[in-house]
Design goal:
This protein is an alpha+beta fold. Helices cover 18% and strands 25% of the residues. It is built from three helices and seven strands. The protein has a six-stranded mixed β-barrel. Strand 4 and strand 5 form a beta hairpin.
C-alpha cells in the first residue's frame, strides 16, 4: 500500500505532466495512471459526489487555458443519492444521462472529458461543482462508467469545450 506522501507525489506529477500534454488527449507519460486514492468506508461514489462535506481529494494542481477551452485536473462522479434531485440548472440529476458539473462553464456547454489511461466521453454541463480543491468536473454515473472512472472514484482528466450555448 502506498503512503499518502507517495500518493500525493504521484498525483502531483500526473497533474504536472497533464499540464504539458493536455491537448494531446493521450497521456505523454505512457499508459500508467495515478493510483486510486485510499477509500473511506463509504462507497467510492459517496466520497466522489458533489455537495458532500468530506474532502476525499488529494491535493493536486489543475491547469486551464482560456484560449483553447482546455482544463486538466481531477474528475469525480455523483453518488446515487443525488438521482432525481435538482441540479443548479433546474434539471433533475439523472445517472443515465451524459451530464456533468463545472464551476464556471455555462449550462448547455458540451465538453469532451478524456481520462488518463481511460476513455473519452462528451457531456453537457447542467450543474455547478465540484467544490473540492484540485477537481475540475463531476460526471454523471453513466459518463463516469463510459471512461472507466467508477472503480477509481477520482482520477486525472483533461476537458475541452466542444460547443458553447448560443
Amino acid at each position: 500500500m502506498r503512503t499518502p506522501t507517495q500518493l500525493y507525489g504521484a498525483l502531483l506529477i500526473t497533474a504536472l505532466l497533464g499540464a504539458t500534454g493536455c491537448a494531446g488527449g493521450a497521456s505523454q507519460s505512457g499508459s500508467a495512471t495515478a493510483p486510486p486514492e485510499p477509500q473511506s468506508s463509504a462507497p467510492a461514489a459517496e466520497t466522489a459526489a458533489v455537495a458532500t462535506s468530506e474532502s476525499a481529494s488529494a491535493p493536486s494542481a489543475s491547469t486551464a487555458s482560456a484560449e483553447t477551452g482546455e482544463e486538466c485536473g481531477g474528475a469525480s462522479y455523483y453518488a446515487d443519492k443525488f438521482i432525481g434531485r435538482p441540479t443548479a440548472s433546474g434539471e433533475p440529476y439523472s445517472a443515465t444521462r451524459m451530464t456533468a458539473a463545472h464551476r464556471t462553464l455555462p449550462f448547455g456547454a458540451v465538453v469532451s472529458v478524456a481520462m488518463e489511461g481511460g476513455g473519452v466521453v462528451e457531456v453537457t454541463i447542467n450543474d455547478r461543482g465540484p467544490f473540492i480543491e484540485g477537481r475540475v468536473i463531476d460526471l454523471s454515473r453513466a459518463a463516469a462508467d463510459k471512461i472507466g472512472l467508477i472503480q477509481a472514484g477520482v482520477a486525472p482528466v483533461c476537458i475541452k469545450v466542444i460547443e458553447r450555448p448560443a
